[in-house]
Amino acid sequence: MQSKLIQTLSFDSELFGYPVGKINWDSSMTEASFLVEASNFQLVYIFSEHELPLSSPDILHVDTKVIFEKNLKAEESFSGISTLEESIQKYGEKETLQTLQFLAFESGHYSRFKVDSRQNSQEFEKLYKLWIDKAISQGNVLVAENLSGMVTFDEKEGFAQIGLIAVHPQHRRKSWGRKLIHAAEHEVFKRGFSLLKIPTQEANSPAMNLYQQMGYSLDKKTFIYHYWRV
């Protein structure tokens, strides 16, 4: 039966091997009507601009997604960039793909696909492996020397956006996160983008603090819930 409220996500359904849908919640919806239609899916992503007073044990709050943004200005952002370019380069064949995939998994420590323990078919690994593979194919991966860290980015309509960012556990507390973001700013600015956005999770306070220290401001907050059919 075709759902009236919930959009079927064909890509996610094929990747995970079961019916997946999503819904953008609004004030006219009721939990009871949602649960009736959600029974046709194994997993439904619920997105809301506000916290939802949902009572069903099948629905869990899995993420509060925040998006930061910054207007890039060459004269302010890229002084001393030549030093960064010596230690951060575009991903090439010489780097180990296995290590890059490891870093991709590290970047998703707070991911809703990892937080939601009800998903036990390697959904997190499937999604993040596909994410890094796509970034590589598009030439949108920057790596730190010795694969100390990496950052990916996407080119959107009118702005660029950070995708994955991670520092190897053996190389943390060496300012690589800041350097990787700075290098990504430089790269997307060269490609003609003056606005860079960075999504993260509100639970990831170290990342939130870093972005604010680097001049990023909060653009949007979204509450995300997962319905999981038991």
UniProtKB/TrEMBL annotation:
<feature type="domain" description="N-acetyltransferase">
    <location>
        <begin position="95"/>
        <end position="230"/>
    </location>
</feature>
<dbReference type="GO" id="GO:0016747">
    <property type="term" value="F:acyltransferase activity, transferring groups other than amino-acyl groups"/>
</dbReference>
<dbReference type="InterPro" id="IPR000182">
    <property type="entry name" value="GNAT_dom"/>
</dbReference>
<dbReference type="InterPro" id="IPR016181">
    <property type="entry name" value="Acyl_CoA_acyltransferase"/>
</dbReference>
<dbReference type="InterPro" id="IPR050832">
    <property type="entry name" value="Bact_Acetyltransf"/>
</dbReference>
<keyword id="KW-0012">Acyltransferase</keyword>
<keyword id="KW-0808">Transferase</keyword>
<dbReference type="Pfam" id="PF00583">
    <property type="entry name" value="Acetyltransf_1"/>
</dbReference>
<protein>
    <submittedName>
        <fullName>GNAT family N-acetyltransferase</fullName>
    </submittedName>
</protein>
